[in-house]
Amino acid sequence: MSKKVVTLGEIMMRLSTPGFERFVQSDSFDVTYGGGEANVAVAISNYGLDGVFVSKVPDNALGQAAINHIRRYGVDTQYVARGGKRLGIYFLETGASARASQVIYDRADASIADAELSDFDFDKIFEGADWFHTTGITPALSDKAAALTLAALKAAKAKGITTSIDLNYRKKLWSKEKAKEVMTELCQYVDVCIGNEEDAETTLGFKSHGTDITKGELNLDGYKDVFQQMKEKFGFKYIASTLRVSHSASDNGWSALVYDGTEFYHTKKYEVRIVDRVGSGDSFASGFIYGLVTGLPMGEAAEFGVAASALKHTIPGDLNHATLAEVSTLMKGDASGRVQR
């Protein structure tokens, strides 16, 4: 029987400049759709599991277009509510070499930010579910969205469903103080916590000493100390952090650390040439979830997640279209990129 993974969050329209053009020089935008939890649902479905996406979109053609976009990849969207003012938008300028990528949000008053608890029947949504996933982006959208996220986590936990959250701090959406207050409460109902070193510090107050991401310095012993503190405070079953070493906007080192309270596991490191890094964290989260929910040991699940997200860096758009076979091939050490005939 296939595993059912439910995600809750916002889906947005993405407008990106063609190629590596800057906002000020571009005369057109490429249109696609995505969002943290929607990205996870698509990847989960792509791996052959039952991915279910829960959200609210406006009752108009743009809202339908967003839903159609992820439904074509097998995602169950029957629990997406309709109504509210608008679909959120974000604009992306893809960087290269020493020039960083830029994101501009236009998501105020998006439908999901004004969603009511009555829009969703969590008893029905979580029927037969094995896993529930959300991110720190959703509660950052509004107090209503934070209350909705908390209600969903509580409902999932009450049914014995494994819960996960990707901390995903977005400074353009809320303050560190507000994030820490809300996320500390949410994490009381989380089994698997995913997030990088910046997110752990800004949302939960845990600092990894000796790490400077701008210089590419990673102190793994510092991470272990942070993970142990997080385990002690929240009782997480698993804690995972992606590790990005930014050589430039075009070339990154990519790996992950995971911890289960006993074992501290550092995955293989990949050197990736970036086509599109948006959604790479979601790709790790979905791969890690896939591994755990299908019964892989923690280390293998983490290796699957890192390999999947390394491949995502090569794929334009928010969504990871890497196949199980491609992830498996990369995990076995074949990163040659030779043409498959």
Protein described:
Helix content is 34%, strand content 21%. Helix 2 (61-71) links the parallel strand 5 (56-57) and strand 6 (81-82). With 341 residues, the protein is an alpha/beta fold. The model has no long low-confidence stretch (mean pLDDT 93). The protein has helices at 36-46, 61-71, 122-125, 137-140, 143-158, 176-186, 197-204, 220-234, 280-293, 298-312, 324-331, and strands spanning 4-8, 12-16, 30-34, 50-54, 56-57, 81-82, 89-93, 102-106, 131-135, 162-166, 192-194, 238-246, 251-259, 264-266, 270-273. It is built from 11 helices and 15 strands. It is globular, with a radius of gyration of 19 Å. Strands 1, 4, 9, 10, 11, 12, 13, 14 and 15 form a 9-stranded mixed beta sheet that branches. Strands 3-2-7-8 form a 4-stranded mixed beta sheet. A two-stranded parallel sheet has the order 5-6.
Largest sheet descriptor: 9 strands, mixed
Shape: globular
The total count of helices amounts to 11
Measured between the Cα atoms of the first and last residue, the distance is 33 Å
Query: What is the average per-residue confidence, as pLDDT, rounded to a whole number?
Result: 93
Q: In sequence order, what are the helices and strands, one letter per element?
A: EEEHEEHEEEHEHHEHEHHEEEEHHH
Beta-strand residue percentage: 15-25%
The level of helicity is 25-40%
Low-confidence parts, pLDDT < 50 over ≥5 residues? Answer: none
The count of β-strands is: 15
Give me the secondary-structure category.
alpha/beta
Spatial extent as radius of gyration: 19 Å
